[in-house]
Amino acid sequence: MANKIYTRSGDQGKTGLLSGERVDKDDIRIECNGELDEVTSTLGLLRSKLSEDHAWQTNLHRIQVQLMNTMSHIAVSSKAREKMTIPLPLEEATFLESWMDEIEITLGTASDCFLVPGGTEIAALCHVIRTQVRRAERRLFTLHKIDPIDQSILKMVNRLSDLFYKLSRLDLQMSGVDEERWKFFKSKTHQE
Known about the structure:
Elements: E1 14-16, E2 22-24, H1 28-49, H2 57-74, H3 78-81, H4 92-107, E3 113-115, H5 121-146, H6 151-175, E4 181-184
Antiparallel strand pairs: 1-2, 3-4
């Protein structure tokens, strides 16, 4: 008989952490992982819309793997984490910064205004991912106040939203589609 995906053990609002503890399904760890899982899944959708040899494929796959490693880390309390070896995204913030620097060379000048998401399907999807990452980041900081998580996770997630903003702009440029500008930023020199 094949293994069944359902266990019925969650019917009463409980679920298990990777470390074996049972927690409520709305526990902050579960919330964080739900947000990160959504990002990882939407990244899969983005990758499916790109050709297999698209220049972003390798980096996007790397991000998905790092997010899954991060979810494993989040699914363990700090007490139990000491007994487990869970990969951390120690170099990911630097990797993401390098990729953004490469994108900036192609984009040229930085945007001086807020952009209305859209233009192309890929650019719009990058904005969806950007907003999902921001939501995940907010939940991670809630968890961090309760049970500190490694700084490498917080840095990686913070850089991710910036990356997807830049990727949306890059796709528009590569597609020859103009950015739809909404409102200009106020620079510090123009503020009273």
